[in-house]
TrEMBL record:
<dbReference type="GO" id="GO:0036199">
    <property type="term" value="F:cholest-4-en-3-one 26-monooxygenase activity"/>
</dbReference>
<keyword id="KW-0408">Iron</keyword>
<keyword id="KW-0503">Monooxygenase</keyword>
<keyword id="KW-0560">Oxidoreductase</keyword>
<dbReference type="InterPro" id="IPR017972">
    <property type="entry name" value="Cyt_P450_CS"/>
</dbReference>
<keyword id="KW-0349">Heme</keyword>
<dbReference type="GO" id="GO:0020037">
    <property type="term" value="F:heme binding"/>
</dbReference>
<dbReference type="GO" id="GO:0006707">
    <property type="term" value="P:cholesterol catabolic process"/>
</dbReference>
<dbReference type="Pfam" id="PF00067">
    <property type="entry name" value="p450"/>
</dbReference>
<comment type="similarity">
    <text>Belongs to the cytochrome P450 family.</text>
</comment>
<keyword id="KW-0479">Metal-binding</keyword>
<dbReference type="GO" id="GO:0008395">
    <property type="term" value="F:steroid hydroxylase activity"/>
</dbReference>
<protein>
    <submittedName>
        <fullName>Cytochrome P450</fullName>
    </submittedName>
</protein>
<dbReference type="InterPro" id="IPR002397">
    <property type="entry name" value="Cyt_P450_B"/>
</dbReference>
<dbReference type="GO" id="GO:0005506">
    <property type="term" value="F:iron ion binding"/>
</dbReference>
<dbReference type="InterPro" id="IPR036396">
    <property type="entry name" value="Cyt_P450_sf"/>
</dbReference>
<dbReference type="InterPro" id="IPR001128">
    <property type="entry name" value="Cyt_P450"/>
</dbReference>
Amino acid sequence: MTDEAANVFADPTAYADEPRLHAAMAHLRAHNPVAYVDKAPYRPFYAITRHADIMDIERDNNLWLSEPRPVLVTAVADDFAKSQLESGAGLRTLIHMDDPHHKKVRAIGQDWFRPKALRELQVQVDALAKRYVDKMAEIGPECDFVEDIAIHFPLYVILSLLGLPEEDFPRMHQLTQEMFGADDEEYQRGTTLEERMATLLDFFDYFSKLTASRRANPTGDLASAIANGRIDGEPLSDVDTASYYVIVASAGHDTTKDAISGGLRALIENPHELDRLRHDPELIDTAVEEMIRWTTPVKEFMRTAAADTSVRGVPIAKGESVYLAYTSGNRDEEIFDDPFTFDVGRFPNKHLAFGYGVHFCLGAALARMEMRSLFSALIPRLDSIELAGEPELAATVFVGGLKHLPIRYSIR
Ligand code: HEM
């Protein structure tokens, strides 16, 4: 049972089958919280399923490094990415870096995501949220909430913040889906490594042109701040610049889309919680936090040991990697009362969906703001809502959530 349970982490279809996934994770938390997983096409790794262990590892960022393997990829892709990077063509985003370089690169974009900068965005985001609720009213009484609403709203917010022209938004959307959804047939460009790399090269090509244009004519947007960012007085390298755009443009919307659509599904499936929120709008902050815990759109990050060490007594050698199972940490019975209950008033809610430590999600405050805005605009206008078909989850090992959420509703 333990081996079988641990293998869910090496099986993209497991994340599309929640009962199977949660049963396996609960088993591991209880019986094998540091589980050795050796299953092709991945290199062996240790799956860490307890909340406390994930936090300890993320806290100790000198011992547990993001390089060379920040996320789970196949052994072949791992080697290929390494060779690409050595040749100067690979992706090297914030999530791939360790301090001290990581801290300096992160500082370039950080101010754009602070509460003060976000307050200036609030009016725009609220207006956009209203626009999407109006759209629901217009296209009702049925829609696919993922395809029609949840995909577009965060994409629009992050690409506007970057400063990209609206006509390029569909292209960015497609590239992000290909990159994050590479394990799911509906999203992937192709199955070969070359086809997967082609997505990355398209991103790079687009952003190299953007860098050149913002260096020549800075426009005061986030893209200009990145293009003209300096480290120790030197311009950011071409790889670091393009990678910065890729991480912001991609991490900024698929994740939020998953939290929004999964959050709405949780409200539909827990009508009592929807009523609580409807009658007490002040619960919006705790409700949003609970939606993020409940959905945990980013399934994992990895860290690699810089020296021989151990976790819960299990020896881990220098160079071996651990898989931080956020989905499991966010259902850990030791941390959360009734972890399988969706509770819009849950407080405290120390979930790990945004990670922890020096890599803590740069866009967490933005994601929260978008979700507050959308649900605050939607819920007071909603007379009724129900599922109009079976919700469908993406097969993924990294970022994912609902692909389709058919709903029927009446909205004012
Ligand atoms: C990093 C989750 C929204 C940008 C991360 C990490 C997680 C995460 C788990 C890694 C943390 C770690 O290693 O400890 C999420 C979730 C989101 C979300 C669940 C939505 C609900 C956003 C948004 C942006 C964003 C809106 C906007 C740009 C980033 C960036 C990083 C990051 C740039 C890398 C930070 C670093 O390595 O220093 N996110 N994220 N994320 N996120 Fe998010």
